[in-house]
Specification:
The chain has about 525 residues and is α+β, with helices and mostly antiparallel strands. Helices cover about 30% and strands about 20% of the residues. Helix 1 packs parallel to helix 8. Pfam families: FAD_binding_2. This is FAD-dependent oxidoreductase. Its cofactor is FAD. Keywords: FAD, Flavoprotein, Oxidoreductase.
């Protein structure tokens, strides 16, 4: 299939960021995608991009700095992570603003600030505004023959991220008519926002820079020379196996492993609901890296977030949605007890919490409410219909507990305690709606605390759902893949969800999957350009 300077495996945001930077540096780049669809998980996303000290904020007069960003990362990271990840945090903070400026100058992407705060605004270095950006809509037509190959989403990509925030479509779907002229124009021009815009812009930029894309091409083996340097890959396409030579390096950016049932079950034991990523995320990159002696790390980390049931390409799928923070509802664990604020940005981390032996301590988990919960969102009822046995109803708390398999006395006590907090206007256990992020998401104090006291009562599972695992090849601060002894596997790089992500399950802001992913792709290419001659 030819010789190239750089082979990038995968076609999501990390992959295209790496490919674009390498190509703009004068290298001959090939991107291979095993499916028939370009864009990976990124194309399905809301395209929130968390980049501290970015030029868009600076041009708007918003103060931020790399130093503040690093202080923030250090302050909010899980205990013990600093020892292993601080060097990578420093590399991310240094490169992220440059990466965003590079993309803005070398693609059609037009990034705009999104009015969302850091979820840990009160922490050192936290900011109320300026670190979250997302692209303006772009027409798929600019992709030419690849326009029909861009992966579609379960999310409404006719809207931008900011429009989703401003219109609150989950609660007010009819509000979309307020922007009908924009929607009509986007329909006429085959345009989309969010992940559609992000990947349209990245792919167009790559094409303009001379990057070659090959779909339906799966990497099955990495090639090595006698000195163990990675020199390319053997790939499978249309039933044939061929070799691709990559003179300067191979970048693994294949996404997560959540669709490999065996790997997922091993690293994420316990109750499980849904997956919201492409089915091709089967751990190809992790397996390729391990096959040449790479250390796999952070394999128990993931983008965990509640998902509603939906269908995608004719099969059951997950739709990421904040449905657990509605009035007149709470979330409880298998013991019938609350364990987190329902408005918490990192509720997925609490759902996925493990004990010393790695066993989940809260799963299975349930959302409990009264009949008013069902009236808060027409979309919820629509999506719930995809799993008709998911929502349980009963006239009493005890009856609902029996249907869900929860201890009735504990659930009744939890709800009585919650109702008492509602009467006082203060959640003494988990302070729901009180910090900057939760107050923003609650849309006003009147929506923070509402009792559960009007039957019939409803309940449903809200177990672990995954939008992408975050474990993979351990890398250094230059995105070079490492062996267990810390030595570098020459010629091999990893980025995005295929690397051992230095920002794991505990996200530091909306967009802390995409922002770091693109940054690590950029870092990998920078390393190839400057250190691998």
């Amino acid at each position: 299939m030819g010789e190239f300077d750089v082979l990038v495996i995968g076609s999501g945001s990390a992959a295209c960021s790496a490919a674009l930077r390498a190509a703009k540096g004068g290298l001959k780049v090939l991107v291979i995608e095993k499916s028939e669809w370009l864009g990976g998980t990124s194309a399905m996303s809301g395209a929130g991009v968390w980049i501290p000290a970015n030029h868009v904020a600076a041009e708007a007069g918003i103060a931020d700095s790399r130093e503040d960003a690093l202080a923030y990362l250090r302050a909010v990271a899980p205990e013990g992570w600093k020892l292993k990840e601080d060097t990578l945090w420093c590399a991310f903070v240094r490169a992220a603003p440059d990466m965003l400026r590079f993309l803005s100058g070398n693609t059609p992407l037009d990034f705009r600030l999104i009015n969302e705060p850091d979820p840990f605004t009160e922490a050192p270095g936290g900011k109320l505004y300026g670190r979250m950006v997302s692209p303006r809509p772009l027409s798929r037509r600019i992709l030419g023959r690849y326009a029909r190959s861009l992966r579609r989403s379960t999310l409404p990509h006719s809207f931008t991220y900011q429009e989703i925030v401003d219109l609150d479509l989950y609660h007010h779907p009819i509000a979309g008519f307020k922007v009908w002229p924009r929607l009509l124009w986007r329909w006429l021009t085959n345009s989309g926002g969010q992940g559609t815009a992000l990947m349209t812009g990245l792919i167009r930029g790559c094409l303009d820079a001379g990057v070659t894309f090959r779909l339906g091409t799966r990497a099955v083996t990495l090639l090595q020379d006698p000195d163990s340097r990675i020199t390319g890959a053997e790939v499978q396409s249309e039933g044939r196996r061929t070799k691709i030579v990559a003179r300067r390096g191979v970048v693994i950016a294949t996404g997560g492993f959540e669709w490999d049932a065996e790997m997922r079950g091993h690293h994420f034991p316990g109750a499980f609901d849904r997956i919201g990523s492409p089915r091709g995320n089967e751990g190809d990159g992790q397996k390729l890296a391990a096959s040449v002696g790479a250390q796999l790390d952070r394999m128990d980390q993931a983008n965990v977030y509640p998902c509603l049931p939906t269908r995608y390409q004719g099969k059951p799928h997950g739709l990421p949605m904040t449905f657990q923070a509605e009035p007149h509802s709470i979330v409880v664990n298998r013991g019938g007890k609350r364990f987190v604020s329902e408005n918490a940005f990192n509720i997925g981390e609490a759902i996925d919490a493990r004990g010393p032996e790695g066993v989940p301590v809260n799963l299975p988990c349930y959302l409990i409410g009264d009949h008013r919960f069902l009236k808060t969102s027409l979309p919820f009822r629509w999506y719930a219909s995809y799993e008709r046995d998911w929502v349980k109803k009963a006239d009493t708390i005890g009856g609902l507990a029996a249907k869900l398999g929860l201890p009735a006395a504990a659930l009744e006590e939890t709800i009585a305690r919650w109702n008492g907090f509602c009467a006082k206007g203060h959640d003494a256990d988990f302070h729901r709606g009180e910090n900057g992020w939760e107050d923003y998401k609650a849309h006003g104090p009147e929506n923070r605390l509402k009792p559960i006291d009007k039957p019939p009562y409803v309940g449903m599972t809200i177990n672990r759902s995954i939008l992408g695992t975050k474990g993979g090849a351990r890398t250094n601060e230059r995105a070079q893949v490492l062996r267990p002894d810390g030595s570098i596997i020459p010629g091999l790089y990893a980025a995005g969800l295929a690397m051992a992500n230095p920002i794991g399950t505990r996200a530091v802001g909306a967009g802390t999957t995409l922002g770091p992913n693109m940054t690590w792709g950029y870092i990998a290419a920078e390393t190839i350009l400057h250190q691998n001659r």
